[in-house]
User: Which sequence fits this backbone?
């Protein structure tokens, strides 16, 4: 364990040089006799607003605790989080990505063991499967806030206008593209992370082989990587998918794109464009290949709550987490903005208050109805480094800068190295 004094000196230097906000060492305000803890999260302005309202309620109910908040948009947040974690200046309480458990706590020591704080955190709304997601090496490092999966949603107005059925198989997808492409409409638009998940689903269903092993290492050979690249090119060539660099979710309201793939937790942010354009957002099950024996479909915790492993105030931090996941006012403030809660008690509260009517819940229902088909997502599947290695290198082939075989070799070697 690093010396606390050394950590504090390093943190002070970094704070001066890089002007980072926050410090993992909570402080006691002697004048007001309040213990100060820090809380970090990312999200949009609506999330910031209701979270700050919730923190006001928490502090009013716990006058001995003050909460210093640091938050921002997702863009650039992961890089800042990495700096905080590496410099030991992370917040006491953190909203984290599921993949960060592997990045920062592969041995279970990177975050506080929450099982030591169950006197202060009520976990009655979570079952063993829920908690297993956040358990590393026997230590409960994180509590899932909600579950996530990549879901498919279409604009009803476009499908009605051209009298089309919603696609169920990969072949259906290309049939729809044959019609819509004549009208300069793409079937799907997707961020690059969801493009990779689409390619993984297609490959695993079609070739009955996982792309990654359970430990995150690459399972396919160069031939398999070539098949994924070929399918990506076909999606682009036949106008099934809008070029990634051109896609923005706002095109869902302009008639340029008939649908999209996105996280369940982002459903409202995407579907608003469809609805503002005059259509209805229709969620459909993930595409399946005929006679597939594997689904290629994966789910994960959308986000999690964790406590810094070097916090000076674990009890106060635990009280804040308990408030965030169990308090009635906080649950109603948050609703399904972060996804349908993993906490069964919170789901029931939202149900009796008619708060499960969002697009997020519609996307969640599709996942729930097909839950037996989903596997547990491997963090490598959403690794930015792996996604960029595939997409950026593939572009050299897509745009005729490099030939296919050289591109396959380059992608394969890059992903292989990143997953060792």
Assistant:
């Amino acid at each position: 364990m690093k010396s606390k004094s050394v950590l504090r000196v390093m943190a002070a230097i970094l704070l001066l040089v890089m002007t980072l906000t926050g410090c993992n060492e909570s402080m006691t305000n002697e004048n007001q006799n309040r213990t100060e803890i820090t809380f970090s999260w990312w999200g949009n302005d609506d999330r910031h607003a209701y979270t700050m309202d919730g923190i006001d309620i928490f502090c009013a109910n716990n006058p001995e605790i003050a909460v210093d908040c640091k938050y921002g948009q997702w863009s650039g947040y992961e890089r800042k989080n990495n700096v905080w974690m590496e410099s030991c200046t992370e917040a006491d309480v953190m909203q984290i990505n599921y993949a960060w458990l592997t990045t920062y706590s592969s041995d279970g020591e990177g975050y506080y063991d929450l099982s030591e704080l169950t006197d202060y955190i009520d976990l009655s709304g979570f079952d063993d499967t829920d908690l297993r997601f956040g358990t590393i090496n026997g230590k409960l490092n994180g509590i899932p806030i909600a579950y996530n999966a990549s879901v498919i949603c279409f604009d009803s107005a476009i499908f009605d206008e051209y009298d089309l059925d919603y696609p169920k198989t990969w072949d259906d997808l290309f049939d729809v593209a044959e019609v819509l492409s004549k009208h300069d409409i793409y079937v799907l638009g997707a961020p690059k992370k969801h493009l990779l998940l689409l390619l993984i689903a297609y490959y695993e269903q079609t070739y009955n082989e996982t792309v990654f092993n359970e430990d995150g290492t690459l399972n396919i050979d160069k031939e398999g990587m070539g098949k994924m690249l070929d399918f990506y090119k076909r999606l682009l060539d036949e106008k099934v998918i809008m070029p990634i660099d051109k896609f923005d979710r706002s095109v869902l309201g302009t008639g340029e794109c008939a649908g999209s793939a996105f996280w369940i937790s982002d459903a409202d942010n995407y579907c608003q464009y469809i609805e503002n354009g005059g259509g209805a957002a229709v969620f459909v099950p993930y595409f399946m290949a005929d006679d597939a024996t594997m689904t290629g479909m994966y789910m994960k915790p959308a986000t999690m709550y964790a406590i810094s492993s070097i916090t000076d105030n674990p009890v106060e931090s635990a009280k804040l987490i308990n408030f965030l996941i169990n308090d009635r006012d906080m649950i109603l403030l948050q609703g399904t903005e972060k996804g349908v809660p993993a906490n069964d008690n919170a789901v029931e509260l939202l149900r009796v208050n008619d708060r499960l009517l969002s697009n997020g819940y519609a996307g969640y229902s599709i996942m729930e109805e097909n839950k037996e088909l989903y596997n547990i997502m491997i963090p490598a599947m959403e690794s930015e480094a792996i996604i960029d290695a595939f997409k950026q290198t593939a572009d050299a082939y897509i745009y005729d800068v490099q030939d296919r075989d050289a591109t396959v070799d380059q992608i394969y070697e890059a992903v292989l190295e990143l997953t060792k």
User: Anything to note?
Assistant: DSSP finds 16 helices and eleven strands in the chain. The first helix runs from residue 4 to 18. The chain has a mean pLDDT of 91.
